[in-house]
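quick one, 282 residues, struct below
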Amino acid sequence: MSVVNIILRYLYAPLFFLGFVGCGLEIIGTGHTKLWFLPLLAGAVLISFIAERVTPYEPVWNLPQADQRRDWIHAVVNELSNVSAIALIPFIAMLDLGIDKWPAQWPLWGQLLFAILIADLGITLSHYASHKINSLWKLHAVHHSVDRLYGFNGLMKHPLHQAIELMAGTTPLLLLGIPMDVASLLGFAVAIQLLLQHSNVDMRIGPFIIFWAVAPGHRHHHRASSTDGDVNFGFFTMTWDHILGTYVGRGDQPRAGELGIAGRTDYPVTYVRQIIEPFRAG
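---
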């Protein structure tokens, strides 16, 4: 195994997350325009795709399955909705709806960590509910219909389900009075985490697998089984999975042919049909 493969296996995940989020902190901390997040995110996507081809977990998942155009549409629509939601924060703040107890005296990185932990609770619980409540599952099933896992899968969501998760994760933060800068950083951290969580890189994270909700743990969640796939709901961390009793750690991760929705090999594959599918009878 080459040095590059070893580095990608054991250092890729922490360097990717800390490196890009660290650059985001630098952008905000030095007063640069938030528009820098756009090329930074584009760079993260590019590096993610390159790493998946250099050290893939499942080589066949790097091959398009007539899904690239659809996934790009999902990505653009959902990222634009995230940006729009963040842009509304100043207007929401003007309504003075919340407790306004944001720890503004903390360093920027501390405020971001605080936001991540609170958002993790809301997103994880809404994710868990989406596997238990049929009306939510119909929306969430779009995300589970994939036949391969790679970086872009994290942005493959029904827009309504995206909105539900966004509300669940950010409502407590809005009530606390999260500043615009921290909200922008959180949105960027979410995008970076999604790339890592669904990555096809053969990453090894050692003991961090019990805490960090990236690909080695999250792949179990995409197994085509109504029982074996109802695990590891965590978004940033596995904290709430340990509490809910839904955590699965080391063990055989799913391979090609083991993903999808149990009993739904006929699930639509085009964007428009996936948007309509949750509202069809049956």
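The chain has eleven helices and no strands.
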